Amino acid sequence: MAAFVEFDGVHKSFGANHVLRGLDLQVAEHDVVCLIGPSGCGKSTLLRCVNGLEPIQAGEIRISSERVSGRGVDVNWLRCNVGIVFQSFNLFPHMTVLRNITLSPRKVLGQSRAVAEDRAMTLLTRIGLADKAREYPDRLSGGQQQRAAIARALAMGPQVLLLDEITSALDPELVAEVLAIVRELAAEGMTMLLATHEMGFAREVASKVCLIDEGKVAEHGPPEQLFADPQNPRTRAFLRSIIAAGRL
Amino acid sequence: MTGAPTDLLSVAGSSRPARRFRSPLPLAILAALAGVVVAALLAESVRVFDRSLHVTGTGLAVSRVAELAVVVAGLAVPYCGIRAVLDARRAGALARQGHLADARVVAEDSRQWGWYVLGLSLTGLTLAFLFGFFGAQDGKVRTVLFNWHYPGGHIADLAGGFWINVKLFMVTEVIVLAWALLVAVVRLIPGRAGAPMRWLAVAYVDIFRGIPALLVLYIVVFGFPLAQVPLLSSLSRERQQFWLAVLALTLTYGAYVAEVYRSGLESIHWSQTAAARSLGLSHPQTLRYVVIPQAVRRIIPPLLNDFIGLQKDTALVSIVGVLDIVNRATILKGQDFNLSYMSGAALAFLAITVPLTRFTDYLVRRDAARMRAGGS
Ligand SMILES: Nc1ncnc2c1ncn2[C@@H]1O[C@H](COP(=O)(O)OP(=O)(O)O)[C@@H](O)[C@H]1O
Ligand SMILES: [Mg+2]
Fold first, then answer.
1. Lowest CB count within 10 Å: A50, B56, B287, B291, which one?
2. Going edge to edge, which strands form the sheet with A160-164?
3. Domain encompassing residue A124
């Protein structure tokens, strides 16, 4: 299968902090790739490089064989095709849920208000938030806010969805409702790249799990293999620490 | 780790200071004495004030009743002091009988009375000062500074002047709101190409925050016509003066308010920008729809503060010849040798600035309450 999202020797540093050190990774269309690894290993950074929130210093990132890193890239166009959802939701607090979702389709894609709201309501209905459309984000639970944030990303009709630890800020009982949506998206064939600490979930939905270590993909493979029979000592150490924390 | 000497709780330790009873009596006696002194001072200053009143009939009766009420109310201070002493002695007795817990409760009451003495004393001393101030020298302060008969006789003239202050304030405020936002946004233009514009904005803010408003007014309102700067020169002299004053105040206050805007824009967490940019919104769109609306909400209190300052500083235009309320009051003062005109002008400003101040405080408190409630 041809790679849909490709990382080719990607280097990224913050000053002297060399975070990504020649990272290679291929994501096929309809793949769900889970990035795991210790805190600070660069999972968020990697995702933020894909949609141009962080510039990279060397190497290349391609989507559908088109270069999306470096100079001469129309980042606003790129971001219409690459949706991202953050750990901290980042809904706009001064807008209702509906306006949060319709803002970008209207201002960037030029949809009329009626069309944008119609599509937003369809999305909200699907994720079970239709009755919250006119509420402000601070009236919603964390799980509802994160679902609204996913709807906001989906409203742009992205080809790839980046999910950065989207359940890490949630109370445990709210995690399931968010994961259910991701599961559904995976079943529908959405290409997704997700950083996560939910190993059980990674094992269930991922087509590929990658351990990031020292700025590279230290080991990757299908979840059943990587979790059951890790080859790399780094992977083993990481999985041991996860088990000690009671998360696997 | 069974019974190891280094287990966490034993390392944490458990040393606390011993509890004992401390008598509030010395402080209570001090409070009682202070109360007596304050009440005496207040009575004396009321007596001075009374002797400066040259009224008869009903006026005298009303004054006397009010004065008596103040003197009697002043007795509340020594009363609280005596209650403090009584409670302190009761607490001491309880402590000697070994009822330590009860003793502490009563001692607490005694201290509470002591605090009342402190609060009431400050109020009482302020009142005593005011009665003395307005009563001294046979009431000179009242006749020279606060004789409402003078400004009352020229009320239309003064009101016409104040209308100029209010117009200056309102026109300048609207222009400043837009102009300062522009400056603040220019200061945030990203990239190397934006650097010269950013410097320009920084230079403007530094310069005009650094020059006294009065000098800017002099230079613009006096200087421009003298130097034949072809600005607004087609207008009548009076209107040209007005608009040049607006320009001068806008230059000064634009710099202040630009800084207020900037602090507001910078207070919006970068994750909001990241989210907006991730949705494909451009930098200007992100500012327009996401950052500025949130920032403006946060800066309303400091913005109102600056506008209170602006409202007061419209008085400066009197120096450059605009016939505002201060200028007119100065002219009238010169005719009648009485400063009550100035007090009248002060009252006019208070009528606007005090409600604005109260409103600002209300907004600040409401925001603080909402923060505590965990909203945004
Ligand atoms: N904006 C930034 N500026 C400077 N350093 C950063 C920034 N973002 C991330 N880093 C650094 O990059 C490293 C990787 O961070 P991150 O990608 O957030 O890790 P992860 O998501 O895997 O926990 C960390 O050392 C972090 O301190
Ligand atoms: Mg992260």
1. B56
2. A82-85, A160-164, A191-195, A32-36, A208-213, A216-221
3. 3-244
Is the CB of residue B275 less than 8 Å away from at least one CB of chain A?
yes
- ipTM of the shown complex: 0.93
User: How far apart are the CA of B119 and the nearest CA of chain A, in angstroms?
Assistant: 42
Tell me how far CA of residue B368 lies from CA of B77, B272, B298, B362, in angstroms.
35, 22, 11, 10
The token pair that represents A166 in the structure block: 């989207």
Instruction: Say how far apart CA B326 and CA B337 lie, in whole Å.
Output: 15
For A171, the 3-state DSSP assignment is: coil
What Rg do the C-alpha atoms of chain A give, in angstroms?
18
User: Shortest CB distance from A80 goes to which of B280, B289, B293?
Assistant: B280
Ligand nearest to the CA of A23: 1
d(CA A92, CA B288): 13
> Which residue, judged by its Cα, is nearest atom 16 of ligand 1?
A42
- The CB-side HSE value for B282 (13 A sphere, CA atoms) comes to 7
Q: Which of A49, A150, A29, A73 is nearest to B279 (CA)?
A: A150
- Residues A166-219 have pLDDT tens digits of 999 999 889 999 999 999 999 999 999 999 988 888 988 899 999 999 999 999
Residue B270 Cα to ligand 1 middle (Å): 15
**A58-63 and A66-67 strand pairing:** antiparallel
3-state secondary structure A202-221: HHHHCCEEEEEECCEEEEEE
pLDDT per residue as tens digits for the range A128-150: 999 999 999 999 999 999 999 99
**Tell me, what CATH number does A78's domain have?**
3.40.50.300
Structure tokens at A39: 């805190």
Residue B29: CB partners within 8 Å, gap ≥ 6?
B85, B88
Model-wide pTM > 0.90: no
